[in-house]
Amino acid sequence: MKKMVITMVLCGLTLTSKSQNTSVEKSTFGLQTGVLGVWVYNEVKLSNTIALRTELGFDFGIWETTFYDDYDSPFLLTPVIVVEPRFYYNLKKRSESSKRIDGNSGNFFALKMGYHPDWFVLFNADNAPIVSDFSIIPTWGIRRNIGEHFNYEAGIGVGLSHTFAERAGYSEDKTEMELNMHLRIGYRF
Question: Three-state secondary structure along 21-57?
Fold first, then answer.
């Protein structure tokens, strides 16, 4: 009987330590770069599975749209502001499988809301007019850690983009479908 009680107590302690509350980090800050830009981000915990990501950076692009018909495919580097709530849906499963969840390493669904302001554009050789836009794109993605501070992230989604063309002197604004595909590598401070 004594051995059974000791066994039950040890099993109970093991279950108690295993049932820790898995959660996104309270706050994580870092820098990411990819083929199409460089960004500084911060993620703040809203709940155990939801973080609010804010991002400032520069998006690279070769813009060939109806707004740039008179220009030779201008290569642009434009500022971007992003606010993105993220739902990390598999943290508990990753934790139970002894996989890393630090730095919000996991799979997520996000609602990416991005704004390219018409403040300035770098590398605008053709002096193409600046046309700002706002987009809302539901996105699925993953983030994984490489060592203690490095990570990589990939995501894909489709949503809507609204271009504020009238502000730049064009006849009307334009709303269209937009694809968000990203592959980034980053450093977490």
Answer: CCCCCCEEEEEEEECCEEEEEEEEECCCCEEEEEEEE
The CATH class for the domain spanning 22-188 reads: mainly beta
- Identify the CA nearest to 81 among candidates 51, 46, 53, 121: 53
Q: Which range, of 14-18, 122-126, 174-178, averages the lowest pLDDT?
A: 14-18
DSSP assignment of 2-13: HHHHHHHHHHHH
Phi and psi, residue 70, nearest 5°: -85, 5
Place of tokens 């804010």: 54
Q: What gap in Å lies between CA 186 and CA 131, rounded to an integer?
A: 29
**145 within 8 A of 103, measured Cβ to Cβ:** yes
